[in-house]
Specification:
By secondary structure, the chain is α+β, with helices and mostly antiparallel strands.
């Protein structure tokens, strides 16, 4: 049987038996719609959670959290300060599973901040600020091109004693009461997480504009003050409290969640000044970027062998949870498709019984048993692909309705996406393949039965 003849036969069947075939195809369409809808929803939520909220392609390792009082006593009385050495970072970088590893160092002294009148219309601040330092190479793609994230002490200006001697926006950087140098404001990175929390929770409560829209539009390059060595909780035991000028130059997923991130070199100098040299000798954590997501567990095992633990396991926990939920929803859709396959099997058995004489006539004029099998399987394949396509379109229309309801009925919350769904070509192709597969499975038994019809016996009943 030629391809043209096969298609003509299928087209004729689609017209002659359209009622039964549409009923069979409806189940395939419903199952495919459920499969595509659930998987697109899962992929969309996964993309937001594991791409923006909890990046899955990196893990931050740190020493075990101190439960032994000996650690505190050692720190207070001059013992070894817990941390990550440069040798540890080098060992991590040498792993074949690691794409890059960058150390981070937390501020070891009190810190507060104040400023933002140009953006918010009034001075705002934080009486206690959490901050850390990071290697600029790790975040070079997260900053504005004209305001780089580099240590401004790398290119200092003229000597000074006070900021009025410097040309704006530079300020006089140096220990309190000592000569300093004019440098640019300290570049600061903030996390998307903190921006979202501020925009969706804090700003509405205090009548402030959302930072995400105004920080770089209205307050581009606005300078604020960081008070070193002094905060609501008290003053540092070393160094004299002073303020430095800073400005936000970008938003990064590698910045500390609820705080500020500055170039690593500045933290080392300030920790030495306000908390002693030992606080600048070792790193507080190291950000490890893996070559692929499935290598995270091996990197965590490597860290454990070095007595390092993940700072945050939320990415792994969320990934496992989402995978389980998506598998459960896909199972529901699979059951619908399986029921549809049973319906197709019943429809095709009836079709074969009703057309036994027609099949026998085809066999009598030269059609082979395999031609009959091809005919029914091709008909089932057509139903499966058409039903799958209709189901995919239906899932897309349902996603538009769901997104509209989410945009109009759900309140604003951190990381609320414009769409909760992610339709990829691979998802659509896979859904169509599953729809075709279940249709073929349903028609396989009746197709073999059609191939075994005896022409002589069937025509003898005429």
């Amino acid at each position: 049987m030629t391809l043209r003849a096969l298609w003509q036969l299928i087209a004729s069947d689609l017209v002659r038996t359209r009622g039964a075939l549409v009923t069979s195809g409806f189940g395939i369409a419903a199952g495919t719609a459920a499969l595509v809808f659930f998987l697109a929803l899962g992929l969309g939520v996964r993309s937001v959670l594991l791409g923006e909220v909890f990046p899955i392609d990196q893990v931050e390792l740190e020493p075990p959290k101190g439960t032994d009082p000996g650690l505190i006593v050692g720190f207070m009385f001059g013992g070894d300060v817990p941390g990550i050495s440069e040798e540890d970072v080098t060992e991590l970088r040498a792993s074949p599973d690691v794409a890059s590893a960058y150390p981070k160092l937390r501020f070891a002294f009190p810190l507060s901040a104040k400023g933002g009148k140009e953006v918010f219309g009034r001075e705002v601040g934080a009486s206690e600020v959490i901050a850390d330092g990071i290697n600029p190479e790790l975040v070079k793609d997260d900053v504005l091109s004209d305001m780089p994230f580099v240590d401004p002490m790398a290119s200092p200006g003229k000597a000074c004693f006070k900021t009025t001697e410097c040309e704006a926006p530079q300020y006089c950087e140096g220990p309190a009461g000592a000569d300093g140098v004019c440098i640019d404001p300290v570049p600061v990175l903030v996390s998307r997480y903190m921006i979202e929390i501020f925009d969706k929770s804090i700003a509405p409560a205090h009548g402030l504009p959302p930072v995400g829209k105004s920080l770089f539009e209205r307050g581009r390059g606005v300078v604020f003050k960081l008070w070193l060595g002094e905060s609501m909780l008290g003053k540092s035991k070393k160094g004299g409290p002073r303020h430095v000028h800073a400005r936000v130059v970008g938003i990064s997923s590698r910045a500390i969640d609820l705080g500020l991130t500055v170039p690593l070199g500045m933290v080392k100098r300030w920790n030495t000044e306000y908390a002693g040299p030992k606080t600048a000798e070792k790193y507080s954590s190291v950000v490890v970027k893996v070559k692929s997501n499935d290598q995270v567990s091996r990197v965590i095992a490597l860290g454990a062998s070095m007595d390092l633990m993940p700072k945050d396991t939320r990415a792994r926990d969320v990934s496992v949870l989402l995978t389980g939920v998506m598998a459960l929803l896909a199972l529901v859709a699979g059951i619908i498709l399986l029921v549809s396959a049973s319906n197709i099997a019943y429809t095709f058995r009836v079709l074969v019984n009703d057309r036994r004489r027609e099949i026998a006539l085809y066999r009598a004029i030269g059609a082979s048993a395999f031609d009959m099998v091809k005919w029914l399987l091709a008909l089932a394949l057509t139903i499966g692909v058409c039903g799958g396509a209709i189901g995919a379109v239906l899932a897309w229309l349902l996603s538009l309705g769901a997104d509209h309801l989410a945009a109009t009925r759900l309140p604003e919350f951190p990381f609320k996406p414009a769409t909760f769904f992610e339709f990829s070509p691979a998802l659509i192709a896979g859904a169509l393949a599953f729809a075709a597969l279940f249709a073929l499975l349903g028609a396989y038994g009746p197709a073999r039965r059609a191939g075994k019809v005896d022409p002589a016996a069937a025509l003898a009943t005429l």
